[in-house]
Amino acid sequence: MRLVGAASAAPCVALDIGGTKVEAALVSGDGIIGARQRLDVKLAGDNLFEEIVALVQRVREGVEVTSLGVACAGPMSQGGVLVSPLNIPVWREFALHDRLVEATQLRVDIEGDVRALALAEGTFGAARDLRNYASMVVSTGIGGALVLDGRLVDGASGNSGHLGHLNVVPGGHLCSCGSLGCLEAEASGWAIEALTGRTAQHADASTRLRTATLVGRAVGTLASVLDFTHCFVAGSVALGFGDDFFATATKAACEVATIGFLTGVEVRRSGIGPDGPILGAACVAWRGAS
């Protein structure tokens, strides 16, 4: 799902706001990353927004740009009008969109971080020739996004795609959302540590097998409902578990997705690498300007 006109789009400033770091970069339409800087969220403290504005001004210095694309951890209201990233306690119902417009005088478009990643997967990654796919990050938490009929699915509040909150173990462990047995409560990095006393990096073979199997079942269940055959996965847990994770998850997905129209369901490694978050933010800017 290539973004129409992305290759010929004007350079933009891309801003990736995570729970531990913020990164800003100048990105051209063909995905070339120019000036690039980052800051530590914890060190910025109560001055986080002011530090972000200074970061943006430094990477755009001397270059004519009109748009700023932002990938931000959530939750948030549609369009990033108000954001409350779970790992940034100084921001609660923070008016990110309007404050960035006022401070930078740029067109500002904001998306959830994993939803932005899905745009990058389709524009620069492994989903360039697909119109239907899912994106997922299996890391400390689990996030997701859906592209159907060549469009990123928004939903009523702009938060569609929370694959981490599919129920995979009825009556299972308590999730941060308040439900029991969500995929995130059973297979994320924080869940693995809570359940086993070990970080995901040191998980034993049975934990790795269980994690991949639950992810695959979630993907297969969703594929049966929404009619897609590919899910591209990034994140430290999935990538750290290696090829066995993807083989096991694919097998589990196929065991669940058995309806006739679904053939060859695959859980595959993301194709955009470590630059995915900043490329995703750039895609948010180009989609907003199109």
Protein described:
There is one protein chain. The chain is an alpha/beta fold and 290 residues long. It contains ten helices and ten strands. The chain has a five-stranded mixed beta sheet with strand order 3-2-1-4-5. The mean pLDDT is 94.
Task: Explain briefly what this protein structure is.
The chain is of the alpha/beta class. It has helices at residues 41-44, 48-60, 96-104, 113-124, 183-187, 189-196, 205-226, 236-241, 243-256, 276-289, and strands at residues 12-17, 21-27, 33-40, 67-72, 107-112, 133-138, 142-148, 151-152, 230-234, 266-269.
Classify the helix fraction into a percent range.
25-40%
Derived from helix and strand composition plus strand pairing, the structural class reads alpha/beta
**Mind telling me the C-alpha Rg?**
19 Å
Number of strands: 10
Topology readout:
Blueprint: E1 12-17, E2 21-27, E3 33-40, H1 41-44, H2 48-60, E4 67-72, H3 96-104, E5 107-112, H4 113-124, E6 133-138, E7 142-148, E8 151-152, H5 183-187, H6 189-196, H7 205-226, E9 230-234, H8 236-241, H9 243-256, E10 266-269, H10 276-289
Helix pairs in contact: 4-10, 7-9
Any descriptors?
2 domains, Nucleotidyltransferase, domain 5, 5-stranded mixed sheet, alpha/beta, 290 residues
